């Protein structure tokens, strides 16, 4: 992974090189090893490199042979070896051993149509000097970030929002609609971001921007339409399990391609254990190093399962121990990197984990992210299935007993008392349509935080589309739910919302790249995704057994204790990290009545009552904790990005290793 930035400006409007140096300076941690610039008449491209493939060459920005196309690229093309061989067979000659050059030459030959042939995680931009056209694209799932903004006809793009804000012309203002969405879905719906002036290119999309400002966008990939039909629907469980194992093995194999060592995260859960087990079983030539986070609080710790896996695999293992004070101590840095309000603290331990990885000399790790979305691993899918089962026989006395099987890992689970569980889980979806019943309980709980919105913020939202209307349009832009199996539709919601909007961004790329570490995700190989979404739903979630087909294919790769374990989602302590734990974090000062009134986003009296409730240890589950975190992080974001954005430092001339200047046009 790297950092990219660029400007397409009307001729002579701005001096591009100094702005690019400031943009790269803001994200230098994404690629601290080399910096490169390309500037021309009204165009500039910048690159901060984290060297993983072809360490000696492969510097960017990179051009084709005649200098008519220039590329900056963040990410990896995992099948670049195969694409290179195909290009070479057609007479193409290469100057480097990098996947960047392969990507550029592949794009030069096939254009937008070649995107579907890429197996990778990427965000890249290509400038065509003849057409005077900028082309941008982002990977299918949304692993690599790509943001953009317009100002008076000028177009800016970058891997992170702070790089765009390095241009002082771009207005820094938190978007009220984004807060409405964060306090519902946990993140703003793409292409929106937390800021009014900046947008995100959605996953699986491309964009072209012409010299005179003409913009076109398109989508090049989507999840499969339906489950397999015909003879494939009758394939045995054993056949499906074997094909999934083979696909995952190959997805892991290509993600081990690197000219630096590759480590692996090991949470103790099934997903990361599968990836580590595949490496150890099928690619023993790779000396496997594993890394994990532990918690002082046993409610969140999975150390026992981590130890079981380490002993089984015989890996060299390192762990970081995390407590509430650790989370509070780094949380300002976490929000700086996330660039959005957060309703959970879960990104913070991941930030500490990537720091450990980098300190151990690694800059690439494999992770198990994505398995829950494509193999129905979350309790939210079980909850929806149980609800449908109960609703089919409304008068049944026995069927509601299944509710007690939900969320067994929660200390204060709503399933503990059956009467409350029926009220909680069987509630109507509220403002959300019936197509979102699977997710309505999560969104409704998060939305309780909106009761803290100030009168001023409510006024700004008055007349705007509701979050429920926006999510309906967001999902219906692809196709409606009516033709889909309920489980498939629920998975698609999760895959297109929380996965790219939060898990791969705030909890993924941003926490990894904050310490110059690249994450790689075998479960998100598009071949694996497409295959899993075509497995018959009854075999993705068999009864209430999640990831059934995956577990069936793991004999000999994982110990039975891990293979058969019930999922315990990754969580971290929340409000008590900042107040009410015997000490009080300095960040609590952001929640004083005076500060709350000055910032204007929330109601000072209501926030004071919430803070006191948390201080006394009486916070109620997700509702209070998410509201507390959302308020605190909105204030942090306001402080760092709106009111006190750091000065405009820039790379020095000496730090820029490669610099290319386009010939001025006649």
TL;DR?
The chain has 666 residues and is an alpha+beta fold.
Looking at this protein, list some descriptive labels.
39% helix; six-stranded antiparallel sheet; alpha+beta; 3 domains; Glutamine Phosphoribosylpyrophosphate, subunit 1, domain 1; 666 residues; Rossmann fold; seven-stranded mixed sheet; globular
Write a structural description:
The protein is an alpha+beta fold and 666 residues long. The protein has three domains: 3-178 and 194-221, Glutamine Phosphoribosylpyrophosphate, subunit 1, domain 1 (4-Layer Sandwich); 230-374 and 504-563, HUPs (Rossmann fold, 3-Layer(aba) Sandwich), CATH 3.40.50; 575-643, no CATH class. The strands form four sheets. Strands 10-8-9-1-3-2-20 form a seven-stranded mixed β-sheet. Strand 4 and strand 5 (69-77) form a beta hairpin. The protein starts with a strand and ends in a 5-residue tail after the last strand.
Q: How many extended strands?
A: 20
From the helix content, strand content and strand pairing, which structural class follows?
Answer: alpha+beta
CATH H-level name of the largest domain... which superfamily?
HUPs
Task: Output mean pLDDT.
Answer: 91
**Which spans have pLDDT < 50 for at least 5 consecutive residues?**
none
- List the strand order in the largest sheet: 10-8-9-1-3-2-20
The tally of structural domains comes to 3
Distance between the termini: 37 Å
Bin the helical content: 25-40%
Task: Assign an overall shape.
Answer: globular
Percentage of β-strand residues: 15-25%
Gyration radius (Cα, Å) is: 25 Å
* Second-tier CATH architecture of the largest domain: 3-Layer(aba) Sandwich
């Amino acid at each position: 992974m790297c950092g990219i930035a660029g400007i397409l400006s009307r001729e002579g409007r701005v001096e591009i090189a100094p702005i690019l140096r400031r943009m790269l300076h803001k994200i230098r941690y994404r690629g601290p090893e080399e910096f490169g610039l390309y500037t021309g008449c009204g165009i500039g491209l910048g690159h901060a490199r984290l060297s993983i493939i072809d360490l000696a060459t492969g510097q960017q920005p990179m051009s084709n042979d005649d200098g008519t196309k220039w590329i900056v690229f963040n990410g990896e093309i995992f099948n670049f070896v195969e694409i290179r061989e195909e290009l070479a067979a057609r007479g193409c000659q290469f100057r480097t051993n990098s996947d960047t050059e392969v990507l550029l030459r592949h794009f030069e030959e096939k254009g937008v149509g070649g995107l579907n042939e890429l197996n990778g995680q990427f965000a890249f931009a290509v400038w065509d000097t003849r057409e005077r056209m900028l082309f941008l694209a982002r990977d299918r799932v949304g692993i690599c970030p790509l943001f953009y903004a317009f100002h008076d006809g000028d177009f800016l793009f970058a891997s992170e929002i702070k790089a765009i804000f390095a241009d002082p012309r771009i207005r820094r203002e938190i978007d009220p609609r984004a807060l409405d969405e964060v306090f519902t879905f946990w993140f703003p719906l793409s292409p929106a971001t937390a800021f009014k002036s900046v947008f995100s290119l959605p996953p699986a999309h491309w964009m072209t921007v012409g010299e005179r400002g003409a913009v076109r966008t398109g989508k090049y990939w989507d999840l499969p339409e339906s489950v397999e039909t015909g003879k494939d629907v009758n394939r045995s469980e054993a056949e499906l399990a074997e094909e999934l194992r083979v696909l995952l093995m190959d997805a892991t194999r290509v993600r081990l391609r690197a000219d630096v060592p590759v480590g692996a995260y090991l949470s103790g859960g099934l997903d990361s254990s599968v990836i580590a087990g595949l490496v150890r079983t099928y690619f023993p030539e790779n000396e496997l190093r594993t890394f994990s986070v532990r918690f002082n609080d046993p409610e969140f710790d999975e150390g026992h399962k981590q130890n079981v896996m380490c002993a089984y695999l015989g890996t060299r293992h390192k762990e970081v121990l995390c407590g509430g004070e650790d989370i509070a101590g780094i949380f300002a840095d976490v929000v700086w990197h996330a660039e959005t309000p957060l309703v959970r603290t879960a990104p913070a331990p991941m930030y500490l984990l990537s720091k450990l990885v980098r300190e151990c000399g690694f800059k690439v790790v494999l992770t198990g992210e994505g398995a829950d979305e494509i193999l129905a691993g979350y309790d939210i899918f079980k909850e929806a299935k149980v609800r449908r089962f109960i609703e089919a026989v409304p008068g049944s006395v026995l069927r509601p007993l299944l509710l007690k099987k939900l969320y067994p890992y929660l200390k204060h689970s709503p399933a503990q008392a059956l009467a409350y569980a029926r009220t909680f889980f069987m509630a109507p979806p509220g403002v959300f349509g019936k197509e979102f019943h699977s997710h309505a309980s999560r969104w409704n709980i998060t939305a309780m935080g909106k009761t803290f919105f100030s009168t001023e913020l409510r006024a700004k939202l008055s007349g705007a589309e509701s979050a429920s209307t926006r999510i309906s349009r967001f999902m219906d832009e692809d196709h409606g739910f009516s033709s889909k199996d309920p489980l498939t539709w629920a998975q698609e919601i999760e895959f297109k919302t929380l996965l790219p909007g939060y898990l791969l961004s705030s909890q993924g790329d941003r926490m990894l790249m904050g310490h110059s570490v690249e994450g790689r995700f075998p479960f998100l190989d598009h071949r694996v995704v497409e295959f899993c979404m075509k497995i018959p739903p009854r075999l993705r979630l068999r009864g209430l057994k999640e990831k059934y087909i995956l577990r069936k294919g793991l004999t000999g790769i994982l110990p039975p204790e891990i293979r058969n374990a019930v999922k315990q989602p990754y969580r971290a302590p929340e409000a008590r990290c900042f107040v009410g734990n015997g000490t009080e974090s300095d960040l609590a000062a952001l929640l004083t009545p005076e500060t709350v009134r000055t910032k204007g986003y929330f109601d000072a009296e209501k926030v004071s009552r919430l803070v006191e409730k948390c201080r006394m240890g009486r916070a109620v589950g997700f509702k209070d904790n998410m509201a507390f975190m959302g308020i605190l992080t909105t204030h942090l974001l306001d402080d760092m990005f709106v009111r006190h954005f750091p000065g405009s430092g820039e790379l020095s001339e000496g730090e820029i290793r490669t610099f290319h200047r386009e010939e001025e046009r006649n």
